[in-house]
């Protein structure tokens, strides 16, 4: 994924399926370096990780 698409997903009122290493995540914050984001697993609000945006994948739109 690129930074611009990640921004669109974060700003959207719709929910998008985003994965990191095959695991569904929420994007919590995009960082100013435009290369990294803080994400957490959809099932666990406590565990957060900073990852490269290019490693995030948009899977499909949740209806």
Task: Write up this protein.
Strand 1 and strand 2 (23-30) form a beta hairpin. It is globular and about 25 Å long. A five-stranded antiparallel β-sheet has the order 4-3-2-1-5. The two termini are 21 Å apart. It has one helix at residues 3-11, and strands at 16-20, 23-30, 36-41, 48-52, 56-61. The protein is built from one helix and five strands. The chain has 63 residues and is mainly beta. It has one domain (3-61). It holds the Pfam family SspH. This is Small acid-soluble spore protein H (Minor). InterPro entries: SASP_SspH.
Helix/strand structural class: mainly beta
Please provide the ordered H/E string of secondary-structure elements: HEEEEE
Helix content: 10-25%
Radius of gyration: 11 Å
List its salient traits.
single chain, 63 residues, mainly beta, five-stranded antiparallel β-sheet, 5 strands, globular
């Amino acid at each position: 994924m690129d930074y611009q698409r990640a921004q669109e997903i974060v700003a959207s009122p719709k929910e998008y399926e985003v994965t990191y290493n095959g695991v569904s995540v929420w994007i919590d914050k995009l960082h100013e370096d435009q290369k990294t984001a803080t994400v957490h697993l959809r099932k666990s609000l406590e565990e957060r990780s900073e990852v490269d945006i290019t490693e995030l994948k948009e899977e499909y739109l949740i209806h």
